Amino acid sequence: MDDYLLLLDVCHKDQRAIGLFDFHNGRSVRAYSEHGGLYETLLFCSRRHLGWSEHLRSLAPHPQLPADGPQQGPLRPPLKPRDNLLVQVSEVTLNTPHTRQGWFYKGNGSLLKTDGEPLMIPYHAHSISSQPGVVCVYLVDPFGQLRFVGFSLGHDIHDPLLSHQDASSCAQSRLRQCAIAPALILSELQNSLSLNVRVERQGTPLPQRSYRLDQQNWWAIRKYSQAFLEQHEQFLQPGMVHYVFHSASRRESDLQLQHGDWLDLDCPELELGLSNQVIEEELLHLYPLETQPARASSHGSQPARTRHHY
Length: 310
Hints:
Elements: E1 5-12, E2 15-22, E3 27-31, H1 38-47, H2 52-58, E4 87-93, E5 102-107, E6 112-113, E7 119-121, E8 129-140, E9 146-158, H3 160-163, H4 167-172, E10 178-180, E11 183-185, E12 193-201, E13 204-205, E14 209-213, H5 215-230, E15 241-247, E16 262-267, E17 272-280, H6 281-284
Parallel strand pairs: 4-15, 6-10, 7-17
Antiparallel strand pairs: 1-2, 1-11, 2-3, 4-5, 8-9, 8-15, 9-10, 12-13, 12-14, 12-16, 16-17
């Protein structure tokens, strides 16, 4: 069994805690931290030079939240601070026959969504597509050092038609909302992952697509993204959090999404996933989604694909 520690920011009736699931021993607990949520706790550990994993495992159970049972209350992207300007979301591509290795800016924390939240597509979009993959999460500690925290799953939304026009349009095509699973794996990737993508359109499921992320690609993305961020002083502001998306698919195989589509991503090895609905601003007033038949309750505001009980 992989020695992963899975983390979740727990919010319930103004009570904050950290959900932990230890893959090594199968232990699940909602832990109380006097320093706040996951972001504040890891910053505290960094100031005191404490090991993140050891400190989190030593936290006492939260006195007012049960260890088991479904998650209640709103979900948050893992490790996300309250200040959206302290968040930078970007994408890294690797060398393929159709793409060159490179870093692309996507936006700040305002465009980062999590399980159950809609993905809003702006009026000026030409097309909609999503690339499934992993999200590497970095934290700049109080001393200005970039530190890798862990990874999660994500949908990287982009505009493929706009990206084919010119260099400026290619950069603009990536300025779209994106989604990250609510749980964070506090570790490097230890084994290959399989990612399953399902799209439901007007109640009808489209053919499932499956992808594989191996460790060779993982280390390539980790090495490039960390080296790039460390080269630029503006990326090393203390307290800043970086979410770096890396796709497991090739762009030429991307499915074109439509208004109202439900986009599901699942990773069986981690028992983790997320579900989001695509909403086009241009069509929302013509085809309001709230008048459509209600979807199954498993795709509501609860973490439907997070099978560990938080």
